[in-house]
Structure formats: C-alpha cells, structure tokens
Design goal:
Largest sheet: 2 strands, parallel
Radius of gyration: 13 Å
Number of domains: 1
Number of strands: 4
Structural class: little secondary structure
Number of helices: 1
Length: 136
C-alpha cells in the first residue's frame, strides 16, 4: 500500500474502514502530500504486520484530526516523517502506539502545531525523545 494515495492533492475525504490490510507490511508514503485531505477514516485498519509507516501522513496539511488509536504498531521500525508538516493537525489519537521496536522516528512531528507536540509529549510518555529531534 506504499504510495497508494500519494500526491492525491485534490482528495478531500476518504473512507477506508472496509479495507483489508492484514497482509500489508509497508504503508510508507500512503497519504503523502494529500494536502486537501480533511477527513480520513482508518477505523478498521489492521496494522499488525506493518513495519514501515514512514511519511505515511507527510504533508497532509489540511487534516485537522486523526484517530489511529486502533493501529497496532508492535512491529513498526520506521515512523520517520510520519506526520511531517501536518500543519493543521490539532487532534491526534495515538494512545495505543507501541514504539518499542521503532528505530527511526526522526522528524516525526516536524512542522506540526506546537500545541499538538506539547499534548503528545505530556499524554504519551511512551514516545521516545527521538520523535522530537531536529524539531522546530
């Protein structure tokens, strides 16, 4: 599913709640530069086998909220640039994220709202400081 909706800059809403993603291992760049995307439903995504989520939502600059609390991230090793320049994102539910196996989180929240980064730092103690390195 890597690059599946990449550069769909006119896409405004997307409901993928019925996608069968059980065998997917790579979701990198999946919604990369979907700059007009405002609504995204990933409520039934099965991410148990995913290892790469890098740049998954990179530059989704119109996305205000995202609930991906259902994501199983136990096998993910790369989350770099995952929310890079999601400049309108103010509600992000990542409450069930397990980052124990993540090797790369660089620039994960770069270009996101300061308020969002503060919430993540205070609410989700399991996030390594690695996610905020090189962050402005």
């Amino acid at each position: 599913m890597s690059y599946m909706f990449s550069r769909c800059s006119s896409l405004k809403e997307l409901n993928l709640s019925n996608f069968n993603t059980y065998n997917v291992t790579d979701m990198s760049y999946m919604f990369y530069y979907c700059s007009s995307l405002k609504e995204l439903n990933l409520s039934n995504f099965n991410t148990i086998n995913v290892t790469d989520m890098s740049l998954m939502f990179c530059e989704c600059s119109s996305l205000n909220e995202l609930n991906i609390s259902n994501f199983n991230t136990n096998n993910v090793t790369d989350m770099s640039f995952m929310f890079y320049k999601c400049s309108s994102l103010n509600e992000l539910n990542i409450s069930n994220f397990n980052t124990n196996n993540v090797i790369n989180m660089s620039y994960m929240f770069f270009g996101c709202l300061d308020e969002l980064k503060m919430k993540i730092r205070s609410q989700y103690k399991n996030f390594q400081e690695m996610a905020f390195i090189n962050d402005n």
